[in-house]
Amino acid sequence: MISCYTAVIITLLRARNFQRHKAVRVVLAVVLVFIACHLPYNITLLYDTVNMFQQGECEVLDNLQVAKTATQTIAYLHCCLNPVLYAFVGVKFRNHFRRIMQELWCLEKRYIAPRRFSRVTSEIYMSTRRSVDGSSENGSSFTM
C-alpha cells in the first residue's frame, strides 16, 4: 500500500495540473485514515498472536478479547469512511454527488406531488375499479 500510494503521489506531484495538491490531500487523507483505523487492530492481533500459547489470567484474556472486538469494529469502520473521505475532501466528487442528489430530489418531488388527472386517466382508473363482470360499481370484485 505504501509503495502504490507513494507512486501515485509522485505521479501527481509531477503533473502540471493546478488541482494536483487537492488530489494529494485526498490520497494522504485516505492513507492516514486507513492507518488510524487498521493499526490498532493489527497491533492487538500481533499482541494476541505473540501471547497465544502463554498462560494468562482470565481477566487479561477477557480484556484482550474486548480490545480485539473494539479495534476490529474500528477497522471495519474504515470501509464506511472511505466514501465519506472522497465526498468531503474531493471537490469534484462532492459536486457530482450534490448534483445527483438534487436531480433525485426533483424526481422524488415530481412523483410525490399531487397531479391533476385527465379524463382519460380518470376513466382508466374507474374501469380498473369495476368488477370482472362489470356489475358492481363499488370497486369490489367479489359479490355475494
From TrEMBL:
CC annotations in GO: external side of plasma membrane
Gene Ontology molecular functions: C-C chemokine binding; C-C chemokine receptor activity
Cellular compartments annotated: Membrane
GO terms (BP aspect): calcium-mediated signaling; cell chemotaxis; immune response; positive regulation of cytosolic calcium ion concentration
Origin superkingdom: Eukaryota
G-protein coupled receptors family 1 profile domain location: 1-86
Entries under SUPFAM superfamilies matching the protein: Family A G protein-coupled receptor-like
Alphabetized UniProt keyword annotations: G-protein coupled receptor, Membrane, Receptor, Transducer, Transmembrane, Transmembrane helix
Gene3D superfamilies found in the cross-reference section: Rhodopsin 7-helix transmembrane proteins (1.20.1070.10)
Keyword Transmembrane helix: yes
Transmembrane segment boundaries: 23-43, 73-91
Entry protein name: G-protein coupled receptors family 1 profile domain-containing protein
Lineage: Eukaryota, Metazoa, Chordata, Craniata, Vertebrata
